What does this fold into?
Amino acid sequence: MMPVPPPRASAAEREALHGELAALCAIRSPSGHERACADHVARVLRGLGLTVDEDDAGARIGGDAGNLLCRIPGTAAGDPTGQAVLLCAHLDTVPVAAEIRPVRDEQWWTDGLGGVLGADNKATVAALLVLAARLVREPIPLTVELLLTVQEEPQLQGAQAFDPRRLQASCGYVIDHPSPLGGIVVGAPGHVRFDARFHGRPAHAGIAPEDGRSAILAAARAVAALPHGRLDGGATVNVGQIAGGVDPEPGPVPAAPVTNVVPAHARVIGEVRGPDRDTLQATVDAVEAILHDAAHDPLGPVDLDLTLETRFQPYRHRASTLPVRHATAALERLGLTPRPFADGGASDANVLNAAGLPTVNLAGGNERAHQPGERISVAALEATLDLLLALVDEHVRTAEAGSATVADAAAPAGAADALGGGSAAPRPSG
Ligand SMILES: [Zn+2]
It folds into this structure.
């Protein structure tokens, strides 16, 4: 059966989209400094007659703006919880060195000064603003909630500070993956950071080395014994920083480092990611055991202070989960090939799923994310708007058909599923 053609953006909407992208990208909004960008977005939405609520996340996590929530009410009365869909993007960008001058040629949007354009994630923000205008002009039965988060790049902090109880939506879409349109991130790992501080005993290295307990040696044992990289089962382990010496808080290596003292302090900082809670926990347990074994080696035992911090939880959806089904259908109706995959990076979808809202992260088509020369094609930007229109339409049609399944819960990560588990390159953020 041929899929029903989806609604498409008009020529005027495409022009509005390009204008919004240029306006948004020209506003610098590195994480924690989203004020001007948030004001612009709120002004556009309020100009449409919509209500925009900003939470106090900025004050709580040390930024100058909070998360924006804008609800576009549907025309259908009745159960609001079963009739709302969440669309989410982030307002912040990675740090930018200079002003940004968005330029468009026949094929691409880039920063004319060669920096990071900020299409991650402003291409989606621009598309959401144009979508909002359409939904105000042509109301639909469904309530659509727009969540614009701050401080996504530094460990999803804005989304983590957002109160998900404010949402009516029963499922959500984040459009924030830097891969070609069609990608559906159905699984993303959880992330635990470890900070291992080894404390030994100082002694003169030449006169009485027997009295010393080298923390650096213990740390080296640990690093050598830890697994690194991708493990069987899909977890990853990385040691990101080591330091050590006579100083409890070793700084940069001095011009004349102390070598005649057995070093009493060393620190190993790293992370574990796991595709599901069980694998993540098992890998963290293994890392913890190795760190303890390295510290308590009978040949030179030292003390260990270990801090484990869960940064975010993993998620993994079955192909039958509502947002996966609807994203797949919307992409097919657009003539795009849906590509469900599990990713190695994180997005606001991790936080929303952990809050019980089944959410997928969709590809937005931007390229070279976080790098100078970041770009998005004119075609991908316009396709993102079409994808949003098709997604919303898919929900409306399903609701009208009376077959909406709103009881889908986020699949417990690690549950058996039929989806391919291929992993994409990890993103520098998240
Ligand atoms: Zn992003």
User: Anything to note?
Assistant: Residues 90, 120-121, 152, 176 surround zinc ion (CB under 6 Å).
